[in-house]
Design brief:
Structural class: alpha/beta
Largest sheet: 7 strands, mixed
Bound molecules: magnesium ion, zinc ion
Number of strands: 7
Number of domains: 1
CATH class: Alpha Beta
Strand order of the largest sheet: 4-3-2-1-5-6-7
Radius of gyration: 19 Å
CATH topology: Rossmann fold
Low-confidence stretches: 225-233
Number of helices: 11
Helix content: 25-40%
CATH superfamily: HAD superfamily/HAD-like
Length: 233
């Protein structure tokens, strides 16, 4: 089998971002009256679209205070070097989130990563209110507002080596198609319950080492060889 192209799909909250930025945002700015129904949501009895509509209705924030909060949040320091390696090697990186573009885009701009393709729900802040919308809800599995499965199926080619990273219960929908899963939290539990092999996710430095190992093993194509070193006679 010739060396494959890697394609990477990653969750944002708690995976690319060090913590769950969305969860913390609601903790900080909501009036506390809404409690996410974890058990019913994991069981697929309620979709995250309804949860977000209710959660946002109990949340108030002015853009300036929201942005100040977001500017204190951090990405995994291993993520930018990982993205750079993927860029040089021609591996697409897609960010799949059942959270909101508002904070993902703001953090990516701060890190100079605004060119990364992001598929998420949409959030507007208007008159102190959080107004969510759900551009990908038509493809839902019933639980997700933005189901990750259709995004993976749409972008991965049959010969790609698919790498998936995540930490939550919205991640199995995408991770089920992966050749290699890096998991913690809810995704790790799902892997264990369903007998799926996974690597316990520690961060993107670990995933970069994994990719480099597959390149030296000839499984992944890696960067195309440059002109240096070519024979000139
Ligand atoms: Mg997450
Ligand atoms: Zn789903």
């Amino acid at each position: 089998m010739p060396p494959q192209r890697a394609i990477i799909f990653s969750d944002f909250d708690g995976t690319i971002a060090k913590i769950d930025v969305g969860d913390l945002m609601y903790d900080v700015f909501s009036d506390g009256s809404y409690v996410w129904p974890d058990a019913d949501w994991i069981a697929g009895k309620v979709s995250s679209k309804q949860c977000y509509l209710d959660q946002c209705a109990s949340t108030r924030a002015e853009p300036e205070e929201l942005d100040a909060f977001l500017d204190a949040q951090e990405l995994d320091p291993g993520f930018p070097p990982f993205v750079e390696h993927c860029r040089r090697s021609g591996y697409p990186v897609y960010v799949l989130s059942d959270g909101m573009d508002y904070y993902i885009n703001r953090l990516f701009r701060r890190y100079g990563l605004e060119e990364l393709p992001v598929f998420s729900n949409h959030l507007e802040v208007a008159d102190g209110r959080l107004v969510p919308s759900f551009p990908y809800f038509a493809d839902t599995c019933g639980r997700c507002a933005n189901c990750k499965g259709p995004h993976v199926r749409r972008h991965a080619q049959p010969d790609d080596f698919v790498i998936y990273l995540g930490d939550g219960w919205s991640d199995p929908c995408g991770a089920q198609y992966a050749d290699a899963i890096f998991a913690k939290g809810g995704l790790q539990k799902w892997c264990e319950q369903n007998g799926r092999a996974y690597y316990p996710l520690t961060g993107f430095e670990q995933v970069l080492k994994f990719v480099e190992q597959l390149e030296s093993d000839g499984v992944l194509a890696g960067a195309a060889p440059g002109p240096l070193g070519d024979a000139t006679t």
